[in-house]
Amino acid sequence: MARRAPRTDPADLDRALCAAALDELVGAVLVLDANLRIRVATPEAAALLAAPVPTGTSAATLLCGDRPKRPFAEALAAGLPFQAVIPRPGELVGGEQVRVRSVPIPGDGGEDGGPPLGWIVYLAPVASGDGEAVLFHGMWTRDARMKETFRIIEKVAGEEITVLVRGETGTGKELTAHALHALSPRRDGPFRAINCAALPANLLESELFGHVKGAFTGAVKDTPGHVQLAHGGTLFLDEVAELPLELQAKLLRVLETRTVLPVGGRDAIPVDVRVVSATHRALRAEVEAGRFRADLMFRLRVIPVRLPPLRERPADVALLTDKLIAELNARGRRQIERVAPAAAIALERHEWPGNVRELRNVLAYAFAIGEGPVLELHDLPDELASLTAPGAEVVVPAAPAAADDGSPELRRIRDALARTGGNRDRAAKLLGWSRVTLWRRMRSLGLA
User: Fold this and answer.
1) For residue 41, what are the CA distances in angstroms to 57, 74, 96?
2) Spatial separation of the C-alpha atoms in residues 23 and 400, rounded to whole Å
3) What three-state secondary structure class fits 40?
4) How confident is the model at residue 92 (pLDDT cuts 50, 70, 90)?
5) Right CATH number for 1-128 from 3.40.50.1000, 3.40.640.10, 3.40.50.2000, 3.30.450.20?
6) CATH topology for 144-307?
7) Interval 295-334: pLDDT, tens
8) CB count, 10 Å around CB of 287?
9) 82 near 390, Cβ under 8 Å?
């Protein structure tokens, strides 16, 4: 008697067909239902994750495991789309990383018709070194362009040529100048900095070039300026585009003759100074507008270095937030252990016109205003608290598994409930369990 072939479940055929179609069209994708369980996984997704992806698996458990930081799972459980860079499943320390991005599947009422029917999760490999945090002379980054800027600084630091740093306020222009000095043969010499926008022209001239006794009322002795004081070292001219035209001519002479003439003086004084300047303006546009000398521009910008603003490197927001919170924890009354998902999204979505300096101020505000170990959305200033729309990317570092002190599951449940405000449905999703499983485990641990 001939053996009958096993019957194939039509639902399995539909899923396989859907997975094959998605794999062909978009590559590595997971399709989740409203309970965050995987209903479809493309072959490329399974290959990228290097792990079995059976139907019904909890996406939170698969992608986040038991790691203490789970912002991606938290955002999904809260109904918020999100992006993140996470360790590859199974990689606890170091290892490869995967970029994940979730997109909601709208309900019957469209985008504003209530909770989503499910989610599409896009997966992509992270190139070697991509997303790795580095510290460079006081500046933290994960951004590839910022890392390239660091490489340029390292290459040109040893050259006896002028450098023009272009960047918005708060991007780290003075830190860059310090790095150029520290990496140069002049590192043992003085570093002098002056903000060309901070003083009126008459005072700026004296501060920059010095003056001789009797040059003006109150000049009771010869006083060297920043140019002389930087002899053998580096002179940093911040906001150099604000330098008045008459002083631009005098600075050009310093660069051409390597001498400085103090206010009221007759004899030029030899100086050995490397000039690093910075501006938030485009000097070429200032030249065209007649506000800056073209010959001085060419002298100053032999090597241009651009610092990208924080809004162009969103992955750095989460990194810098962690570093700045650690600084605040070290000297403040409050100890912040983590950032709530909604607050993290608001921080990522903000445009940051003041860049890292503004981020520092915002976190100092939140630190002072809020209470408890979690930085919540309502701790942030009003202009940020409304920014809960998704789109930014965070990087979730790999972390070693927590030590077992006798009740790791108890801690996980309490943490999930705290993160979801006591909402058991969302806590169960976050943990990758059903609501019944959560209730049973809570009861067995004396929490129900």
Assistant:
1) 10, 21, 20
2) 33
3) strand
4) very low
5) 3.30.450.20
6) Rossmann fold (3.40.50)
7) 999 999 999 999 999 988 877 998 999 999 999 999 878 8
8) 17
9) yes
